[in-house]
Amino acid sequence: MAKITVLCWNFEKNGGGNLMLRHWAHERLRALKPHLVLRQEMWGASADGDQIMYELESTLGLRGWLGPKSSTAVFADTRVFESVRTWPDTGPMWVQPPTALMLRFRAAGVESMPLAVASFHLNYSSSANRLSEAELLSTWADKRQTTMDGEPYRLPALLGGDTNSYPEPGLPGDPALPELDAIPDRPHRLHRSYIGADGRRRMDTRPDQALRTAGLEDVARHWATNGGTPAALAPTVDACATHGPDARVDRVYTTEDLLPAVDDVDVIPVPLEESDHHIVRVRFDGDRLSDILTRPFART
Questions:
Q1: How buried is 178 (Cβ within 10 angstroms: 0-12 exposed, 13-18 middle, 19+ buried)?
Q2: What is the dihedral of CA 160, 165, 167, 172, to 10 degrees?
Q3: CA-CA distance, 167 to 262, in Å (whole number)?
Q4: What gap in Å lies between CA 80 and CA 106, rounded to an integer?
Q5: Which domains does the chain have, with CATH numbers?
Q6: DSSP letter string over 119-178?
Q7: Which Gene3D superfamilies did the record assign (predicted)?
Q8: How far apart are CA 17 and CA 260, in angstroms?
Q9: Buried-most residue among 34, 88, 191, 263 (CB within 10 A)?
Q10: Distance between CA atoms of residues 88 and 97, nearest Å
Q11: Residue pLDDT, tens place only, 232-271
């Protein structure tokens, strides 16, 4: 079976009202032939009867679901994924709520496990709020379904978005954590850090720690350490005067059961005049994914 391509992208301000820029940006996505797109900063997409959403569906050739407050969206190839349900109420604390739904991989069959899928955007300015949001995200790694004979099982999960924070350091090739005093913009020092137990201010890696504690793995980290290449760990935002050095703030996480199906992870560069974030691309092996999703009692 062909590879399944998932793209995750924070397209800056959804083009900022520039129709041609928005069109070119999504043509860029379409050229990558995605089956699933996790988008952030969907500003304005709900205006005028969701006109921009219909426009983007047409450009991408995918069906779209828009989250609350036009913060995030999920687009899917309905020949590959069947929608099972949505979660319009994603819980408290969200400044930019995620788009969350349940999708079934058609090739795995009608009795296969669906996937819990979410596109998220953690808070920009508050590390405390980000940690709460990351903890809420972990609930999509704890969604359960019941078979027709009454047996419960836990759904695999696939979550991607802008964490506005850093992965736990230590992997060769991963961008180094910024040094707080080296960030010229004083408010941004606050935005990307927190006070540790020792009273010192530290760069914020807590969302990554929280998600991995909950059994959600950073697929780029997994791929780079399991036969892949360091390209999986490329920065997703470039250095700038206000935000500091290159960083890998955009990440895709899956529950551990999906990791054997990961076939490649890389970062697609995007020119700064188009967006301040690059595109994260994850490819899954379709046969391995089908096999995982037809073994519903692996995670109860």
A1: buried
A2: 110
A3: 19
A4: 6
A5: 3-293 (3.60.10.10)
A6: EEE--SS-HHHHHHHHHHHGGGGS-EEE-TTS-EEEPPEEEEEE-SS-PPS-STTSPPPP
A7: Endonuclease/exonuclease/phosphatase
A8: 41
A9: 34
A10: 10
A11: 999 999 988 777 788 999 999 999 999 999 999 999 999 9
